[in-house]
Specification:
Structural class: mainly alpha
Distance between the termini: 28 Å
Largest sheet: none
Strand content: under 5%
Radius of gyration: 17 Å
Length: 244
């Protein structure tokens, strides 16, 4: 079941994003607490993220006001800060936060999928605004990560990038911010390495299948399924962790 969920997560990330909505709850079902499941999911999905970012690296670029090198450094530092913040968060506190984090990620994903309008001539963000927002996204990415792709896509397009360039750039930056989190997490005892290995292999294969299937799949239907899954997971987590 874990391999199947991870494979589907890899396909989802290649098609529309939101793969962690599948891996996170199934890792919980294997007996991990929410913080350990989050850390294990981050480690396990990292190889697929790297391969996706590497494939589109030639399209990645900086914004008119902020160089790619600056975005790279901001993402690296922010991811590390988010990971350190997670380590300072008691497991009980993180458990209480998880339903809210999943709800936030679901709302962001739904907004980016169905409500956000991309115009041909948007008002471009300046260097300070774009850098600050990217730092906040990176910290959140190192801490939890759900919805970071949509958040970065919004910031990068508002900063002046085309949708195609923004998509390639956010894939690379997602790998960058998670790389610093992975370096911090990799020595922890919280990681369930057997589960991580299963997820890493299956998600990487799923990512390749998703890339192949991208022109053939109804992306809107996929996004609707992800939002429904996120809402169902939110309700389930609130019921499980906030009722006695």
């Amino acid at each position: 079941m874990l391999a199947g969920a991870a494979f589907a997560a890899g396909v989802q990330n290649a098609l529309a994003g939101g793969g962690s909505f599948l891996t996170f709850p199934v890792l919980l079902m294997t007996g991990l607490d929410p913080r350990a499941a989050n850390i294990t999911s981050t480690i396990a999905l990292f190889p697929a993220q790297v391969s996706t970012g590497f494939a589109g690296r030639r399209e990645a670029t900086g914004t008119p006001s902020l160089s790619f090198a600056a975005l790279f450094i901001i993402s690296l530092i922010g991811g590390a800060l988010g990971a350190l913040l997670l380590l300072k968060t008691p497991s009980e506190t993180f458990t209480a936060l998880v339903p809210w984090l999943v709800l936030f990620a679901t709302i962001v994903f739904a907004w980016g999928s169905f409500l956000r309008k991309v115009t041909d001539n948007p008002k471009h963000l300046g260097a300070l605004a774009a850098g600050t927002l990217q730092m906040c996204i990176s910290i959140y990415g190192g801490y939890f990560g759900g919805g970071i792709g949509i958040l970065m896509l919004a910031v990068l397009t508002l900063s002046g990038l085309t949708l195609k360039s923004a998509g390639a750039t956010k894939n690379v930056l997602a790998g960058v911010m998670n790389s610093s989190a992975v370096v911090i997490f990799i020595f922890l005892h919280d990681i369930a390495w057997k589960q991580a290995a299963v997820v890493a292999i299956a998600a990487t294969v799923g990512g390749q299948v998703g890339a192949y299937a991208l022109p053939r799949v109804n992306e809107r239907a996929m996004r609707i399924c992800i939002v429904l899954l996120g809402l169902g997971l939110t309700v389930g987590l609130f019921v499980h962790y906030h009722t006695g």
